[in-house]
Design goal:
Blueprint lengths: L2 H19 L2 H34 L9 H19 L1 H15 L1 H5 L6 H19 L1 H12 L6 H28 L3 H20 L5 H7 L3 H9 L2 E3 H22 L5 H24 L3 E3 L10 H8 L5 E5 L6 H17 L3 E5 L19 E5 L2 E5 L4 H11 L25 H20 L1 H14 L1
Parallel strand pairs: 3-4
Antiparallel strand pairs: 1-2, 3-5, 5-6
Helix pairs in contact: 1-6, 2-3, 2-7, 2-17, 3-8, 4-8, 4-9, 6-12, 8-9, 8-11, 8-12, 11-12, 12-13, 17-18
């Protein structure tokens, strides 16, 4: 970008930042975020304390006291609500108001491409993102001073997932604002897309196609980061969604371009994005960032499973709504998918007879394993029985590595005093800051006049 265009872009970004900071909706959103984060954090600490009392009385339960699951994921749930339901309105106002006031026509006359204009707006929104992090950072700091444990790798994965989710929401909102003639229509489009993720999650067990689509819903992708799993599949999917909507918004932004040309450009960009994402999905990479390594087997078992180069076929005779299948998916199959090079999982058709009915087939609940012409089967869903079975099929002798057990971090704490920060001090800071940016002359006049009188 030439120096003149770069200078224009910087000036335009400064103007966009001033416009955002002068928007009442931004500061109201931050106040609501502070209240929600405070409530979620205080409630999470209270529940964690109650559970810790039991864990301290019965040490065998202490391993279940994980601050990430008990404190930070519930606290970040407040962020999820604001990101999904409130943030789109701020983005839509930033983009849509330019169309309604005619400012967009003037901006398009600048020596900047629509793509650059979109990047400028993203850069301005990143400043709001810094303010957006203040309530969450406050919760982490308060938890630390209460004596709680903060495991940075897992916390960083959680924050990174929310940043990618925010990027996707922002790009969807920008697209909705560009293709809509009114702000209300843009809001409906954006909420339809984001809330559609919830529908996919609810319908995941209704059909095989719904189950496949639900894996790429925004909510499901974010949930992987909440569980402490850093996955190239989730990263690539969220980035692909963000890029698709961002480029679509940039291509459709200029009303003077012909629809045929814009459609061709969008199709070309969509093909490039889908091909790139598909290539990444073919060789997924994962990293278990959890402190208790709940997404991994013992390192010795992991090494042995990676050496199973031949196809491993697993046939499951259970209905999708069976709770045992849910446990088997999360405790065994999900780990095998990330470890075994060639894994084929077959869900045998079963006849459901209702919640309290008995299955008609004698094979119901049976899990079959086939590897190198060898066959074995079991009704167990426990790793303690399944892993030796798999090693026996592969002719392996595995001795588990000695690793220290996860003992958990039970803590009895009282976060009640932090309500003053989340419910009063921080909202007042946001409100005063918003008033300062909206009426800078008034505050300057008041303080300036007072100093002159002295």
């Amino acid at each position: 970008m030439p120096s003149s265009e770069s200078r224009i872009a910087r000036l335009l970004m400064a103007q966009e930042i001033r416009s955002l900071l002068g928007s009442l909706s931004v500061w109201i959103m931050l106040v609501i975020l502070s209240l929600l984060v405070g409530y979620s954090f205080i409630q999470a600490v209270d529940l964690f304390t109650q559970a810790s009392k039991t864990a301290l009385a019965y040490p065998e339960l202490a391993s279940g006291m994980n601050p990430m699951e008990g404190i930070f994921v519930p606290t970040m749930g407040a962020y999820y609500l604001v990101e999904t339901l409130l943030l789109p309105f701020v983005v839509i106002r930033l983009v849509g108001q330019d169309k309604q006031t005619g400012t967009l026509k003037l901006l398009l006359q600048l020596p900047l491409s629509p793509f650059t204009l979109g990047l400028v707006k993203l850069g301005a929104l990143s400043v709001i993102g810094i303010l957006f992090l203040i309530p969450g950072a406050s919760a982490v700091i308060i938890w630390h001073f209460l004596g709680g444990t903060v495991y940075l790798p897992e916390l960083s994965t959680l924050v990174f997932g929310h940043l990618l989710y925010i990027l996707a929401i922002v790009c969807i909102a920008m697209f909705a604002a560009v293709v809509s003639s009114t702000l209300a229509t843009a809001a409906m489009i954006c909420l339809a897309v984001t809330l559609g993720s919830w529908v996919l999650d609810f319908a995941a067990n209704s059909s095989p196609w719904a189950a496949v689509l639900s894996r790429f819903s925004l909510t499901t992708l974010l949930r992987q980061f909440e569980s402490g799993l850093l996955s190239s599949t989730a990263i690539a999917s969220l980035l692909a969604i963000s890029l698709l909507f961002f480029f679509a918004a940039s291509i459709l932004l200029h009303p003077g371009h012909q629809w045929v040309a814009r459609l061709k450009a969008f199709i070309l960009v969509a093909i490039i994005i889908f091909v790139s994402a598909w290539g990444i999905l073919q060789k997924p990479l994962t990293l278990d960032t959890t402190e208790n390594h709940r997404h991994s087997f013992n390192p010795a078992d992991m090494r042995a499973l990676k050496e199973m180069k031949a196809p491993l076929k697993i046939t499951v005779h259970m209905a999708h709504e069976d709770s045992r299948l849910y446990d088997f998916e999360h405790s065994i199959l999900s780990k095998l998918r990330r470890t075994v090079p060639q894994l084929e999982i077959i869900y045998a058709p079963t006849q459901s007879t209702g919640l309290f009915g008995s299955p008609e087939s004698d094979n119901y609940g049976l899990i079959e394993y086939n590897y190198l012409g060898k066959h074995d089967e079991s009704y167990s869903t426990s790793a303690y029985e399944i892993l030796p079975l798999l090693h026996a099929l592969a002719g392996q002798k595995v001795s588990p590595d000695a690793i220290p057990p996860y003992t958990g971090h039970p803590l009895i704490a009282d976060a009640g005093k932090s309500q003053w920060w989340f419910y009063l001090v921080l909202p007042l800071i946001f409100l005063i800051s918003g008033f300062q940016f909206r009426h800078p002359q008034l505050l300057s006049h008041l303080f300036g006049g007072h100093s002159n009188e002295n």
